[in-house]
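User: Modeling request: complex.
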Amino acid sequence: MTGMAEAKSLLARNIDRIVSAGAEYADARFFVDDSSEVLVLYDGNLEANDTGFETGVGVRVLWGGAWGFAATSDPASLDSCFDLALRNAQTAAGLVKVALRMGRLPAHKDSFRSPVEIDPIAVPLAEKLDLLTSIDARLKEDWILRRIVTANFTRRHQLFVNSDGTEIEKKLTNIFADMMVMALDAEGQMQRRSMSLYTTGKGTRGWEMLLAPDLFSGHAERIKTELSQLVKAEPLQYGRRSVILLPGQTFLQVHETIGHPLELDRILGYELSYAGGSFVTLDSIGKLRYGSERLNVSSFGGIENTPGSFGYDDDGTPEKDYLLIDKGILVNVLSSRAMVNEANDRAGRKVLEESGGAARATAFYRAPIDRMTNVNILPGRDGGLEDIIASTADGIVVDNPTSWSIGSNREHFHFGCEIAWEIKDGRRTRILRNPTYQGHTLEFYNSLTAVGDESTWQLWQVDNCGKGEPNQVMQLGHGVPVVRFDDVITGERG
Ligand SMILES: [Zn+2]
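Assistant: Request completed. Predicted assembly structure:
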């Protein structure tokens, strides 16, 4: 396949052929370019410099209520790849108990491009290393034992065609970066502070993003100073108190205890053998009190600058903004076309109106499954961080996860964080080390008593969400404000 027009017509012709043979639905994803690059500086030395390039076509065919999938990186075997996907579906159809349905959607002919000024993969390696090395130099001190600076770039040019007549061309660029410093505390235990590249949800997402000091490099001195205080700090004592989460912690709290339990395929039991299930049931949708009145959560693939925005999902469904949790009540879940139809069939009523546009595959040789896009907590009306601290009698502010342990149905959790600031009578008093907190998901979100305003809202990126068999590592975003929960179990019982 040479040009995009030729590729489109080849894929469309094969899809017509498969549908004429009796398939209920078919689609193809042609990855023209799927490039990646990972750079790791460890104590200033280049520890890893990995680049990847993949190209190929993945084909899905729905026949007799069953999926068949096949993929090839050889353009000459395109026709036989479609034939194989059809045969796989026909074989699977003989074993089907619950028939899957995709339904039919209006055709879209469109394109989507993530906004980029400078393609990060095209930037010369020397220039990339210069930037990472200059950040590393700012982290260097005699007393610091380990320094890690990493950057990760992805670029994907993809063509999607399906039997609805939809044709979407996408160009997606993502950029991730992390820095971390480690040192020993008085007890000889390793402490760490880190920072990841985040976004405001606006702007472009090319190499230029990594050059913006406020989003990344400008935090080097801060994390170093905080680590110097952390190694001299007392440990957090066990007890119930308020916990204020900064966005660097909130994003993972939301990811693990709102994002994952609201994936419809998990709710339907498809992920039980690997990623796990969910305490949410079909019956919960529309009535479960998930959190306090202050909790408003949306899924929005249309935010300008995040890895969770991609225009159209891998079912050909356009992205849209929809509420998952409205004033504390669960009103929707993360879904794809076949899962929505199955959920409605199983419930014997219309539990869900339409697909949430969450079907995503990580590579041309993987089939799409339900994934997060941007699962966000909407900003609240409780002011900035200092306002929330001022109204807290006894609590801690925590940032950045060090460890997490989550129930397989996401019903409870335990997080360890890098750092805590003690709050007494509305004031920050001292830094504490080894902070942890835990809770029951629903009890925890029902104890949400403060949600920061727009000024506290940051979009944190996830580049390593794992799910599916075989495993698919996905990239997405979480836009979150500062949040406060009351009466939370913190610290470890001595
Ligand atoms: Zn995940």
